[in-house]
Amino acid sequence: MARAQPAFIARLREFEGLAEAEAGALAAALGDCVEAEGRTDLQLEGEEGAVAYAIEAGWAYAYKDLEDGRRQIVGFHFAGDTLGLRTLLLRTSDHAFRTLTPCRLHRLRRRDLEGLFADHPRLAAAVLWALARDEAIVVEHLVSLGRRSAEERLGHMLCELACRAASRGLAEAGAVRVPAPQTVLADALGLSVVHLNRTLRPMRERGLVEIEPTGLVVRDLGRLVEEAGFDPAFLGIYPDDPDHPDHML
Amino acid sequence: MARAQPAFIARLREFEGLAEAEAGALAAALGDCVEAEGRTDLQLEGEEGAVAYAIEAGWAYAYKDLEDGRRQIVGFHFAGDTLGLRTLLLRTSDHAFRTLTPCRLHRLRRRDLEGLFADHPRLAAAVLWALARDEAIVVEHLVSLGRRSAEERLGHMLCELACRAASRGLAEAGAVRVPAPQTVLADALGLSVVHLNRTLRPMRERGLVEIEPTGLVVRDLGRLVEEAGFDPAFLGIYPDDPDHPDHML
DNA sequence: CGTCGATTTGACTAAGATCAATTTAGGTGG
DNA sequence: CCACCTAAATTGATCTTAGTCAAATCGACG
């Protein structure tokens, strides 16, 4: 029985014209899905050595804990994204991953990945591209933390998340749900929960976002993008081109 | 006449056992060096399309300007590092590069890189590794900006730079010179120059660093690493292993 | 009904920014 | 050699942003 193509492969193919054989080999390496509960840490070490994941469904995030309990969230990931690939490549484990919602994940073992690159070299180039794109997002996040005010950071991050999610079809009725509690958003933005909450208020009053028990909902992405002065170019997304597959909302 | 191996190739080889043919092809693609003056922006577009650089000598940094003049420096780069590779791969140009000192650079054209990956697929894996390592550094920087105090940030960044520089043989008599004025350090750390200067003072008084006209000099890296609680694991450097080639100072 | 985590609000504090001089040190021209 | 210029470094005074502490509220769920 033929199965639908894994989300990670679909995303790679948007960029690199992968041959059937390559896509097939990658699909074989991805194998079956594991289920993970919401709000749990993901294991990066299995019985067979280091693993990374390709997300099939659900949201997760990468974070780093400091010794004294402070925590910085590095980025959010969902269907089509990869988790821990860098860690797998570098053989270090400098940070951790945690689910926000229940997730369906493909395991990626280092051994399999190495074999894959040896047999299908173009896959290395494709993964290289995926990694470059992830890094562009991290860099933009870094710029926000270094030089933008709380309000600007929040606006930019919500734009980034909503644009990415929308471009992968995760918008519901024109709205994008970010299934993260405020504690998590605060740790991503380098803010205290209290200050995040206060920064959020004016945005809620203007109808840009809404807080629901299941997470924050971006109600008016267009206006948010405009008010935040957000430029989605670094995402490789083209929101103004209705003919482009990434056109959203 | 045989020339010494470019620094970038030497660095790749530390990690991936590249065959002679691969190293030779990469060396051919790198070609001759360009000279760049200190304190000048690097062009990312040439007559032949987008270019990136592999640094042979000198220091440079990647930065992003915001509309209103604020600036965030993303990272510092020197011999063996690459500049603009991500931009080249993604075909976007979301930030810029500027030299600190006079630099000797190899140009890397997109066309050449694509041909290289097609002919020598293991090079794609090697570059993938280099990119992963760069990203680990960016992530650590991001954590600093989000959750560490000015003093902690400064300590960590100096450790990172000094460890990296030392591991590539850029230490002089046990000291590492970071050829950056305080304005640049401040923009990297997300601080004002005034506050950076004040944060620097206690470190100078304790003899950890020194300010000289040509830049900041890290005098006692060991103590700095200890006081900052810096863990160089994410750099892929092993300072405590005298047998390892990365052993420093 | 009670509990627990998440959210919200108020009052106060602190880290770091901003503004405004002043000093320093190299480099330049005379 | 000296006067002068400029970019960088330094210092003081004041202001703002965001953090901390503490308490109250809310909502889902057993």
Write the layout of secondary structure elements.
Two copies of one chain form a homodimer.
Chain A (H helix, E strand, L loop, with lengths): L6 H9 L4 H11 L2 E4 L8 E2 L2 E9 L2 E6 L5 E7 L4 E2 L1 H6 L5 E4 L3 E7 H10 L1 H27 L2 H18 L3 E2 L2 E4 L3 H8 L3 H13 L3 E4 L2 E4 L2 H8 L21
Antiparallel strand pairs in A: 1-8, 2-3, 3-6, 3-8, 4-5, 4-7, 9-10, 10-12, 11-12
Helix pairs in contact in A: 4-5, 5-6, 6-9, 7-8
The first copy, chain A, binds a DNA duplex (30 and 30 nucleotides) through helix 8.
Binned strand content of chain A: 15-25%
Q: Give the topology string of chain A: H per helix, E per strand.
A: HHEEEEEEHEEHHHEEHHEEH
Number of helical elements of chain A:
9
> Which structural class matches the secondary elements of chain A?
alpha+beta
- Distance from N terminus to C terminus of chain A (CA atoms, Å) equals 34 Å
Q: Determine the fraction of residues in helical runs of chain A and give it as a percent range.
A: 40-55%
State the largest interface.
A-B, 46 and 44 residues
Q: What would the average pLDDT of chain A be, to the nearest integer?
A: 91
Query: What is the 3D shape of chain A?
Result: globular
Describe the largest sheet of chain A: 5 strands, antiparallel
Please give the oligomerization state of what you see: homodimer
